Amino acid sequence: xxxxxxxxxxxxxxxxxxxxxxxxxxxxxxxxxxxxxxxxxxxxxxxxxxxxxxxxxxxxxxxxxxxxxxxxxxxxxxxxxxxxxxxxxxxxxxxxxxxxxxxxxxxxxxxxxxxxxxxxxxxxxxxxxxxxxxxxxxxxxxxxxxxxxxxxxxxxxxxxxxxxxxxxxxxxxxxxxxxxxxxxxxxxxxxxxxxxxxxxxxxxxxxxxxxxxxxxxxxxxxxxxxxxxxxxxxxxxxxxx
Length: 241
Ligand code: GLP
Description:
Blueprint: E1 2-6, H1 9-26, E2 31-34, H2 41-52, E3 62-65, E4 67-69, H3 80-87, E5 99-100, H4 109-122, E6 128-131, E7 153-156, H5 159-164, E8 178-181, H6 184-188, E9 192-197, H7 203-211, E10 230-234
Parallel strand pairs: 1-10, 2-3, 2-6, 3-5, 6-9, 9-10
Antiparallel strand pairs: 4-8, 7-8
2-amino-2-deoxy-6-O-phosphono-alpha-D-glucopyranose (GLP) binds next to loops.
């Protein structure tokens, strides 16, 4: 685990976007693992600019997103399908047939999760996984107590995560209770991982993940076992290290 402290969130996002662009030029058919939440938006903004300058070509790449809310249609403004369209996909040249997000509308959820895993395997795994972190140390929607070897599956959100994500919905009651998420085991198989976190509000989760024991109660702590995981944070998120 490598800790990279950048002076500002903007600098951190520029650094990670640069790493993604380098991967794409070395391996045009790279498989990216993408994340939602407010943290990676700056990375997507940088990638869009790199693309506009001809420095990032997504035409041969593939993308797998971490998670989606169960019950939300892709058009729902708070769905992660919608988020990805708005913040990245519609602005760059991904082949839409090569971008994947778990379906919030699957009638057979466990079959949909098994298919998602099979598709990641069919693409020969994820080259570079982007992650944010929840205030409780969750990654994707793997809430505390998630098995560290879990695969893509249905999860129930904790009251804290529902509250944290309520800002994306018109009312707190609207936040779904259930989600589909890649598992911790799925995430750990990515060949390279960049976890981003900014601000004081993430300082405790970062300290627990980086310096605490590896425990299912802080899912991001498992990244201590990942051979190339990089934790890219600003000064405020690093303040409890
Ligand atoms: C959600 C997402 C996570 C994300 C987290 C933190 O729970 N499923 O992938 O890391 O929110 O979001 P933010 O970056 O907005 O703090």
